[in-house]
């Protein structure tokens, strides 16, 4: 038996404006999950986190699976694969996206770069290119800037960015995400659901009071609409500038038993319950390549 848990996370299955996928994302994801079923013990996320918290042993090579944001292809593509392989999964949902009261700014920005009528623009002191690999790099720079803003400032900055890029067409971002009927179908098909905040806020950039209210509202809205307890939250973005001590405190006060970051690593009995670690994956990139790349990046960051 073991006292270690690896939590693996994904976002989309097939390409979106923000998350491009090379080849077939569904085939890539199925290959990943088949290898996991063969070489690991895939366990329900919430039960495994409870076991760690309570000091109960886990099976060797315990792995839990989850998806963030509520992309519609999670239900259309990931769920059938999980069902075929007999694997559990958890889906972290955003009530504001489910109701279409919020927009996925990262997808809107990705669309604006991809369909920009400009070769380059000036925005917030940066020269941003829109074509080819340089365009993807510049999109990343813009997204990192937007990510670390409070919600009100981000809305204004995004509108300015989209205006400067003068994109052609419409982003169709709403169609990328599940709605409430889809979320209910996830539950009816036996999959667990968690919170990903009310409006996908970068929590640590908000006031402690706003963080608490967002987390509380998200949990209560999901429970009211779906009729299941919501005990786990996955913090959007999940890096150190998105999760603070106030964030962890707000999550516990808002009624969550567990909180998950995107901090790379594994979970043990010593891992703080409101600061779990995950390894985020893409369906077209193998496990080894992802892990080696992340470890190399951490080593380089320490050297700098």
From TrEMBL:
Q: What is this protein called?
A: NodB homology domain-containing protein
Read off the InterPro entries from this record.
Glyco_hydro/deAcase_b/a-brl (IPR011330), NODB_dom (IPR002509), Polysacch_Deacetylase (IPR051398)
Q: Which GO terms describe its cellular component?
A: extracellular region
Species assigned in the record: Sinosporangium siamense
The residues covered by the NodB homology domain are 61-304
Which cellular compartments is it found in? Secreted
The organism's taxonomy opens as:
Bacteria, Bacillati, Actinomycetota, Actinomycetes, Streptosporangiales
Pfam families in the cross-refs: Polysacc_deac_1 (PF01522)
The GO biological-process annotations, alphabetized, read as: carbohydrate metabolic process
What keywords does the record list, in alphabetical order?
Signal
Keyword Signal annotated: yes
Q: Which GO terms describe its molecular function?
A: hydrolase activity, acting on carbon-nitrogen (but not peptide) bonds
């Amino acid at each position: 038996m073991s006292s270690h848990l690896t939590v693996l996370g994904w976002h989309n299955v097939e390409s979106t404006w923000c998350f491009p996928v090379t080849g077939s994302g569904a085939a890539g994801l199925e290959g990943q999950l088949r290898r996991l079923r063969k070489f690991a013990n895939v366990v329900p996320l919430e039960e495994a986190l409870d076991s760690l918290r309570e000091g109960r042993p886990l099976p060797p090579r315990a792995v839990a699976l989850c998806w963030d944001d509520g992309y519609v292809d999670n239900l259309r593509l990931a769920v059938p694969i999980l069902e075929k392989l007999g694997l559990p999964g958890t889906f972290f949902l955003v009530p504001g996206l489910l109701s279409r009261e919020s927009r996925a700014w990262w997808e809107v920005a990705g669309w604006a770069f991809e369909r920009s009528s400009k070769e380059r623009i000036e925005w917030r002191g940066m020269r941003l290119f829109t074509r080819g690999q340089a365009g993807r790099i510049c999109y990343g720079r813009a997204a990192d800037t937007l990510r670390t803003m409070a919600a009100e400032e981000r809305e204004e900055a995004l509108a300015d960015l989209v205006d400067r890029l003068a994109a052609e067409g419409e982003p169709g971002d709403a169609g990328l995400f599940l709605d409430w009927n889809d979320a209910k179908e996830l539950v009816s098909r036996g999959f667990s659901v968690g919170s990903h905040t009310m409006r996908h806020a970068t929590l640590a950039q908000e006031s402690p009071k706003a963080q608490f209210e967002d987390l509380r509202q998200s949990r209560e809205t999901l429970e009211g609409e779906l009729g299941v307890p919501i005990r786990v939250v996955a913090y959007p973005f999940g890096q150190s500038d998105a999760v603070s001590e106030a964030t962890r405190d707000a999550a516990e006060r808002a009624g969550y038993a567990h909180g998950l970051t995107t901090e790379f690593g594994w979970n043990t009995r010593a891992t703080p319950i409101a600061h779990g670690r995950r390894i985020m994956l893409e369906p077209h990139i193998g496990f080894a390549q992802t892990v080696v790349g992340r470890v190399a990046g951490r080593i380089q960051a320490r050297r700098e």
